């Protein structure tokens, strides 16, 4: 039987553990605060940001939300970041990506104080991750690492194929998997749009991480029997019965599930874990910034 890796269940458990640590911080007079910044009118981005705010409330964190007009100047966004950097009540800052074209994304990521960069996208934090000394592991790959561990999927010695090489998913995922540490020690192949004969590579993999952003791109014929399949893709497509839209992953679920040993669904797989790890990083940020020690879950 194919095992369904339930991201909602693992994330719920983790949120409970985080809520417990938030209480410890509160007792010491610290209320962990996460600021989300949205400079977009994209409906999906608005949904994700409001979900993140709801998550904060659930675990007892202080959620602050700043919304900027997508037509506003880049300087206005930089100024907002500077203010949040200086605000002692804010321990974590997340600027929802993508930002409008007239804003330099690199500058946005550089501008956030590395100690508050709960996405882990600041060059200092990227460097630390690559060096095996991470401060904040990026939320999506970290969430995937937790999901694999929760389901006893052994990464050590496994052949892993990561499909996608973005800075927010593919690259940090590959980095975590090759680390000489628990949840690492895999042998990793990173594929992208210029990869020759992708199927031949995915068919050899014990673990496939699909993060190409193409609906139902990986099907059962591309997988080895018993492989663990992690579907990162979030694609909104026309529903088959024409009644509206639905969410599908980068994996053709039905076909892949016939071959895979374990698989994550979309929705309810990686997405909820990404949000839980954001709370985790905010908790860690609050502890590091205030010197109040907690045992991280
Ligand atoms: N569940 C979650 O928490 C999250 C989900 N997502 C979702 O994950 C998906 C990927 O996101 P993100 O990494 O930001 O996407 P990007 O668009 O930044 O990157 C996509 C990557 O896939 C590669 N790619 C494109 N086409 C192919 C192909 N035909 N064969 C092999 N590789 C290909 C690209 O290659 P190249 O570099 O050559 O262009 C690129 O490296 C999206 O669906 C996104 O919505 C993203 C973040 C969090
Ligand atoms: N600075 C920044 N950090 C991010 O981490 C970041 C970002 N920008 N920009 C966009 C992507 C995308 N992303 C998702 C997070 C959770 C779900 C999620 O919770 N999905 C639910 C369902 C969502 C729905 O129903 O639409 C699920 O898969 O079950 C999805 C996508 C974070 N991202």
Automatic annotation (TrEMBL):
Residues 138-288 form the Tetrahydrofolate dehydrogenase/cyclohydrolase NAD(P)-binding domain. Keywords: Amino-acid biosynthesis, Histidine biosynthesis, Hydrolase, Methionine biosynthesis, Multifunctional enzyme, NADP, One-carbon metabolism, Oxidoreductase, Purine biosynthesis. Its EC number is 1.5.1.5, 3.5.4.9. GO terms for molecular function: methenyltetrahydrofolate cyclohydrolase activity; methylenetetrahydrofolate dehydrogenase (NADP+) activity. Pathway: One-carbon metabolism; tetrahydrofolate interconversion. Residues 5-119 form the Tetrahydrofolate dehydrogenase/cyclohydrolase catalytic domain. Catalyzes the oxidation of 5,10-methylenetetrahydrofolate to 5,10-methenyltetrahydrofolate and then the hydrolysis of 5,10-methenyltetrahydrofolate to 10-formyltetrahydrofolate. PANTHER family: C-1-TETRAHYDROFOLATE SYNTHASE, CYTOPLASMIC, C-1-TETRAHYDROFOLATE SYNTHASE, CYTOPLASMIC-RELATED. This is Bifunctional protein FolD. The gene is folD.
């Amino acid at each position: 039987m194919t095992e369904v890796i339930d991201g909602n269940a693992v994330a719920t458990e983790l949120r409970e553990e985080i809520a417990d640590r938030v209480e410890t911080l509160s007792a010491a007079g610290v209320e962990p605060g996460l600021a989300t910044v949205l400079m977009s009118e994209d409906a999906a981005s608005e949904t994700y940001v409001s979900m993140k705010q709801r998550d904060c409330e659930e675990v007892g964190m202080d959620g602050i939300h700043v919304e900027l007009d997508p037509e506003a100047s880049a300087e206005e966004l930089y100024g907002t970041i500077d203010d949040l950097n200086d605000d002692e009540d804010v321990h974590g800052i997340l600027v929802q990506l993508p930002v409008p074209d007239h804003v330099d994304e690199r500058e946005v990521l550089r501008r956030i104080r590395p100690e508050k960069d709960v996405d882990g996208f600041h060059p200092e934090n990227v460097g630390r991750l690559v060096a095996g000394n991470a401060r904040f592991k990026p939320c999506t790959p970290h969430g995937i690492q937790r999901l694999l561990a929760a389901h006893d999927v052994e990464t050590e010695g496994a052949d892993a194929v990561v499909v996608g090489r973005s800075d927010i998913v593919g690259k940090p995922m590959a980095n975590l998997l090759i680390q000489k540490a628990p949840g690492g020690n895999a042998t990793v192949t990173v594929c992208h749009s210029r990869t020759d004969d992708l199927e031949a590579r995915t068919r050899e993999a014990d673990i496939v991480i699909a993060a190409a952003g193409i609906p139902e791109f990986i099907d059962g014929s591309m997988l080895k029997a018993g492989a663990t399949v992690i579907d990162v893709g979030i694609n909104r497509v026309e529903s088959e019965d024409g009644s509206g839209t639905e969410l599908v992953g980068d994996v053709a679920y039905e076909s892949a599930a016939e071959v895979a040993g374990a698989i994550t669904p979309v929705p309810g797989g990686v997405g909820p874990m990404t949000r839980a790890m954001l709370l985790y990083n905010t908790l860690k940020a609050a502890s590091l910034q205030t010197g109040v020690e907690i045992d991280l879950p």
